[in-house]
Amino acid sequence: MKMKLLPAIVATAGFLAAPFVFSATYQGELSAAYSDIDIQGDEEGYFVGLEGKYYFAPVDTKNHPLAEAAFIEKSSNVYVNLGNFEFKEAGDRLDIYQRSIGVDFFIPNTMFYLGAGVNEMKSNYSWPAEGNSSGGSDATDWDSAWFIKAGIAPVTGLLVWSEFTEDVDVSDEWNINGKYVIPLSGEHALNIEAAYEKSDISYADNTIMAAVDYYLDRNLSIGGGFINTSFDDAIGDDATTDYFIRARNFFTDSISGEISYTNGDYEDSFMVGGTIRF
To answer: How many CB atoms lie within 10 A of CB 155?
Structure first.
């Protein structure tokens, strides 16, 4: 893991942020992330992701942790994201491309939340020539599927929701997700996240996620959590658990950097990312 790069990244982000002065509101943000993935054996990979988000009204960050302001304010938005996974092993290479567009909408003057969008994915698998066989590749076209989300926000800082995907019956796959930001004394706050998914249409049978972030002040948070996945009899009726730690800091009201490290039963990964608000 390229941990020695962190001091340089943090110092550079702080230097770039220093000359600017930003307001306490924003209406758009651009985020980027890179993740280095080490997998058991000779396989390795990486992930690169980009996201752009536009809020229908300016987001007021006053008296909120900067990372949670839009969530606490129930700020409706539209977003676009792009992602690329690449995995290599013994000359074989698999690229998975993902893109999506969606909307998050909090119905005004109610506790109800709705979301919708479209996910698209395609892949390309290539292999080198070996022995008497020639190399080649196998690519798929973009495959699209729409999704919808529905939930409730009964109190400030709390949202509970479920997500539904095209052509997937609720009896075959269902989920419930929750996020709660709790203000503490001064600028301290606590972010709690949890999710559960039950699936009968893939190898993953049950997936449980839980995470907690503690805000030392409105700029800096540190946290961690786990993802536990159990599998059906088709691959041995086993289970895996990935543990992660993460941190995020706003160098100004509008520029932030974040890092995370995940340790899993079959892979480790290190992520670095950043966001600019405007």
So the answer is: 9
Confidence of residue 9 (pLDDT cuts 50, 70, 90): very low
Cβ neighbours for 27, distance < 8 A, ≥ 6 positions apart:
54, 55, 57, 58, 59, 278
Other C-beta atoms lying within 10 Å of the C-beta of residue 118? 13
**Count of alpha carbons within 13 Å of 236, Cβ hemisphere only?**
4
State how beta strands 92-106 and 77-89 pair.
antiparallel
Tens of pLDDT, residue by residue over 64-87, are 999 999 999 999 999 999 999 999
Query: What is the Cα–Cα distance from 216 to 214, expressed in whole angstroms?
Result: 6
232: burial class by Cβ within 10 Å (0-12, 13-18, 19+)?
Answer: middle
Single pTM value for the model: 0.87
Give the chain's length: 278
